[in-house]
Amino acid sequence: MTGGPDLAAAFERARSLYRSEAPRILLLLLAWAGVWVALEILVIGSGSPPGRPIWLGLHLGYFWGTAYCEAGILRVALAAVDGAPPPGLEAFLDHRVAGRFLILKLVLLPLVLAGLALLVVPGLYAAARLAPSFLVVVGRREGPVEALRISLQQTQGKSGPLLLLSLFLLGLNLLGAAFLGLGLLVTVPVSALLCAHAYRALGG
Q1: Cβ(165)–Cβ(128) under 8 Å?
Q2: Most buried one in 57, 153, 177, 204, CB count within 10 A?
């Protein structure tokens, strides 16, 4: 697949793995939601207004805590696509990977959001070229700078299929969120498996 990942093949692979892998991914998604709820309780309890050091520290803690869950979801998806045994608990407590994942989030999230605000396409392009860096960090334990370099290298000349995949993922999860958020129980695991399959198709 020199032109990039085949979206139909990726979706079929994700569909076939959903039943076996969704419980693990949804358990990590529940942990992600738990971190968010705990943060909100702490923010309300602290009485700190937005922008104050305590408020900023708590939100940084949120991004750090959810990095473990998000890296875990990608780790489960990669193992499933590879046909490997599910990762053990120790794999989810990899502090080095979580720290590098956090740095990438803090760098890429504003970039993608700014791009989405500029008529959507720039944000999707940034996601298409740079999002595989998260899988590089999880799969190869590379640092953020090296992960970004590898991501740009692997996606060079394949922007078309990857833009289509990014658009599909955006639409899929917006659709999932529209049904009182319940659709995300399907779309989040499918999205993770789609991304893992596409990453392997890129040679990751």
Answers
A1: yes
A2: 204
